[in-house]
Every structure is written in C-alpha cells, then in structure tokens.
Design brief:
Layout lengths: L1 H15 L5 E5 L7 E4 L8 E5 L4 E7 L3 E5 L5 E5 L3 E2 L10 E3 L7 E4 L8 E5 L4 E9 L2 E5 L5 E5 L3 E3 L2
Keywords: Signal
InterPro entries: Cell_Wall_Dynamics_Protein, SH3-like_bac-type
C-alpha cells in the first residue's frame, strides 16, 4: 500500500515539474513577423515583432500559446502555430543573424555604430540584402519591410 502511494506521489511530482526549455524557431508568416506578447492571447500588449528564423527557447504553455525566451533574455508569449523545432523557410532569404555575445545585433539607420538603432535582431532571424554595402556593413530588409544596416561579421549568407 505504501509503495503505491509513493509511486503515485512521484508521478504527481514528475507532472508538476516544468519541462526543459527546447530550442524552437519562428516560422514564416503572411505579414512577415510574429508578435511577442506580454501574455497568452491577442488581448495582451506586443513586446516586439519576431521575424522568420528567430531562435527562441520554449518555456511553457500549450499548442495555442507558448511562453518563450529570446537569447538576450527577453520573455514573452507567441502563438504556438508559428514556432517549430526546425525552421522551414517559404521565402528565399539572403542572410541569417549569427549568435552574438549580448544576444542581439542592432539594425541601424546607417553603416556604422554612430547611427541610431532601428531594431534589435536575434540569432537565426532571416534577412534580405537590399543591395547596399559600405565597408563591412550591409543594407538589409526584414520580411516586414523594415530596412537598415548591420555589420557583416554578425551575418551568415544562406543562399
């Protein structure tokens, strides 16, 4: 009898423990981005927009809404239908963002660090080359149409 209770207790404890975080990737969307939200639903505010290929760590949630963490530590919720264990591109991209020490790459208004930051890009994000180049900097376009400049040393060609 005691053994049954012990086994039942251990089973309940195992179910209560959080699952280990797993690396997942944002998939292509019709509008070019996936909203990272403050909570599990469209009624929650948008923290930022994630583009295809962005690497996230799945933390919690269900199939509909998943809590995720970005490499820089930003945590939020995304619709579970737009992330997967593998990235399956439906568009032809030119570059992907490499991992960086601080977890993000700045997309800037011009080709050096003196220009303002437009957006932070995360490892795995997919980008189009807009044709501009200045030294070690490339002019890029995100799937949502946002354009800016980033250092080539943090980018990897994919085509």
């Amino acid at each position: 009898m005691t053994r049954r209770f012990l086994l039942a207790f251990l089973a309940l404890v195992a179910l209560a423990l959080p699952a280990a975080a797993e690396t997942q990737y944002v998939q292509d969307t019709n509008d070019g981005y996936l909203n990272l939200r403050r909570g599990p639903g469209t009624q929650y505010g948008i923290v930022m927009r994630l583009t295809a290929g962005t690497e996230v760590q799945g933390l919690a949630g269900n199939r509909a809404w998943r809590q995720v963490a970005l490499p820089d530590g930003t945590v939020g919720w995304v619709h579970g239908g737009y992330i997967d264990l593998n990235y399956f591109p439906t568009r032809r991209y030119d570059f992907t963002v490499r991992r960086t020490n601080d977890g993000y790459l700045n997309l800037r208004r011009g080709p050096n660090t003196s220009f303002g930051i437009i957006r932070r890009l995360h490892a795995g994000q997919m980008l189009f080359w807009d044709g501009g180049r200045s030294g070690d900097w490339a002019q890029l376009r995100l799937p949502d149409g946002t354009t800016g400049w980033a250092s080539l040393k943090y980018l990897m060609a994919v085509n």
